[in-house]
Amino acid sequence: MEFTTLLEGIVARMRTAPDKGRVADYIPELASVDPDQFGIALALADGRFFAAGDADTAFSIQSVSKVFTLALALGRLGDGLWHRVGREPSGLPFNSILQLEHEKGIPRNPFINAGALVVTDAILAGHQPREVLGEILRFVRAAADDEHIHIDEAVARSETDHGHRNMALAYFLAAHGNFVNSPELTCGTYFHQCAIEMTVRQLAMAGRFLVGGPGKPNLISRDSVRRINALMLTCGHYDGSGDFAYRVGLPGKSGVGGGILVIAPGRASIAVWSPGLNQHGNSALGTLAVEHLARETGWSIFG
Ligand code: GLN
Predict the structure, then answer these.
(1) Ligand 1 pocket test: which of 22, 27, 97, 189 has the largest number of ligand atoms within 8 Å of its C-beta?
(2) Which of 64, 68, 75, 170 could join 183 via S-S bond, C-beta 3.0 to 4.6 A?
(3) Where does the record locate the signal sequence feature (predicted)?
């Protein structure tokens, strides 16, 4: 398999794809991102690395950050985390509040916003936001082997100014006794983790700890690797998770900045970015691109 040719071919196909989706605009700072950008990167388990397209342009990782905070929370709390958040797909949009009322403030999974807020609240307990954000950045930088990864303050501020829906989720969780810190502190920390900027090169490198096998950054246990991959497959694309599993057949986590981290267990960490989103808030061309990649390589967890 000639990976350079494969990735260049995918970039060329995406440049002429008919439906690029729509850029997220509920965070005003993201609304101004040029939708005609596409980048893809591949970090193979054997150490080889390939990238094509806009692979050196940084974008807002948004909900892809939930993978890193989940890894930190599992390391710190272990199975205790599951008293506060479930492990079932929600079948509803990422920012939905509906199930929280029926399910007594226990979010369905750690990747919908309500669940991710609980995860961030759990790692924030007993610490200052600054310390926890430092810890999240240290984790991401160690995973990517890159000290240049940072938070885009303008994006964090933009979401803080417009994040009423997440504040509502946080207050609802607090009303059910499933919040330790003030909604302001936890949401502030969450908005900053979502505002981490990375290129697809950096994100593909950072995902290697979820590939498994020797030679990868040994940041979490093998059990956690398997469990996070399972949650990415079942919940990583919200109410588009079934469609992503059907089309791509690999665990993935999307963000409204248009990035997706995809793991081919034992083989590769893949990062793709295109800012236009589909109706579920997942990158339209990013999904199409990894669908092509999975088909061409034959990578699938389903055989
Ligand atoms: N920061 C965004 C939000 O909370 C993340 C959502 C996403 O990427 N799906 O709305």
Answers:
(1) 27
(2) 170
(3) none
246 is in an annotated binding site: no
Evaluated on CA atoms 87, 191, 207, 121, the torsion sign reads negative
CA 173 / ligand 1 centre spacing (Å): 17
Find the helix or strand (DSSP H, E) in which 6 lies: helix 3-15
Residue nearest to atom 3 of ligand 1 (CA): 113
- Do domains 3-62+197-296 and 65-195 share one topology? The answer is yes
The top-level CATH class assigned to 3-62+197-296 is: alpha beta
Q: Is the pLDDT confidence value at 215 over 70?
A: no
Residue 23 known to be catalytic: no
Q: Which backbone phi and psi does 291 adopt, to 5 degrees?
A: -65, -45
* 238 a catalytic residue: yes
Q: Does domain 65-195 have CATH number 3.40.710.10?
A: yes
pLDDT at 1: 60
Residue nearest to atom 4 of ligand 1 (CA): 113
Whole-model pTM?
Answer: 0.98
